[in-house]
Design goal:
288 residues, alpha/beta, elongated, prephenate dehydrogenase (NAD+) activity, NAD(P)-bd_dom_sf, Rossmann fold, 6-phosphogluconate dehydrogenase C-terminal fold
Length: 288
């Protein structure tokens, strides 16, 4: 494929942004492409700038917006609402043919705003992470064999910078899939946002007995350690889907409580069997 992406700018150089930068840099090198990696993070000091350029693959830390956004591919890696606000700056400075993407955990609201601004935008969601945060915990291996969602509709893009992005992600050993922004937010409200809030609620519900808990409880409540500043924007930009899932899960819990109270062993057995089978499928996919 003829190289159309010569420069990629990352606005936000945390765990996901830096890991993605490294993965794309290695993918470019593996296919003989010379791609310059430019980045900016408002929280960086001189020590951070030196570290990320010397040890993590960033070619240039850029503070001038005119230079920062003068790229073929612009990746917004700030929290969701900050990314939405950044679209105005992107519109002002980015080349007309630049591809804009983001790594936010919700997609519909930012896609709507980008469309109104007539930006060449396709949302992206790398399904990866770890408990440590910040660029120091970054690694291209974080994305290896992980799913990366591109919100390009029913199919992956087949031309332009977007098609080249797909090829770079695949070269980085990512499993790239397509879906619409609305489908993304509906699905991830169920399998990501609901588990986070359930874990948070479970920790609160059991607060008086946490000191007596073991490793099983710690595993079930691992997500309760997630920081609210990260999740605030996710909840605010996907609240209807999340609320619907919480309501449906509350109904399931009510039914489960009745089965336990009424000693309905057959129903409980069926639940455990189904859950065991689904868990085994996750293990086979390497999602443990």
């Amino acid at each position: 494929m003829r190289q159309g992406i010569h420069t990629i700018s990352f606005i936000g150089l945390g765990l996901i942004g830096t890991s993605l930068m490294q993965a794309l840099k290695h993918a470019g090198e593996a296919t003989g492409r010379n791609i310059e990696m430019v980045g900016f993070d408002p929280g960086f000091n001189e020590k951070d700038i030196a570290a990320i350029t010397d040890n993590f693959g960033l070619d240039r830390f850029e503070t001038d917006p005119a230079q920062l956004y003068a790229a073929d591919l612009i990746v917004l890696c700030a929290p969701v609402l900050a990314n939405i606000a950044l679209l105005e700056t992107v519109k002002q400075h980015a080349p007309a043919d630049a591809l804009i993407t983001d790594v936010s955990s919700t997609k519909a609201e930012i896609a709507t705003r980008a469309e109104k601004l007539e930006l060449n935008f396709i949302g992206m969601h790398p399904i990866a992470g770890r408990e440590q945060q910040g660029y120091c915990a970054a690694s291209p291996e974080l994305l290896c064999e992980r799913m990366v969602i591109l919100c390009s509709g029913d199919r992956l893009p087949e031309s332009g910078h977007a098609a080249e992005l797909v090829e770079l992600l695949r070269t980085a050993s990512c499993n790239v899939a397509a879906m619409s922004p609305a489908d993304h937010d509906r699905i991830y409200a169920n399998i990501s946002h609901l588990p986070q809030l359930v874990s948070t609620a479970l920790m609160q519900h059991c607060r008086d007995n946490v000191e007596h808990s073991g490793p099983g409880f710690a595993s079930a409540t691992r997500l309760a350690g997630s920081p609210w500043p990260v999740w605030c924007d996710i909840v605010r930009t996907n609240r209807d889907n999340i609320a619907d899932n919480l309501a449906a899960f509350s109904s399931l819990l009510a039914n489960l409580a009745e089965e336990v109270r009424n000693d309905n062993i057959e129903a409980l057995d069926a639940r455990f069997r189904e859950a065991n089978e689904l868990y085994q499928r996750l293990q086979e996919r390497g999602c443990s």
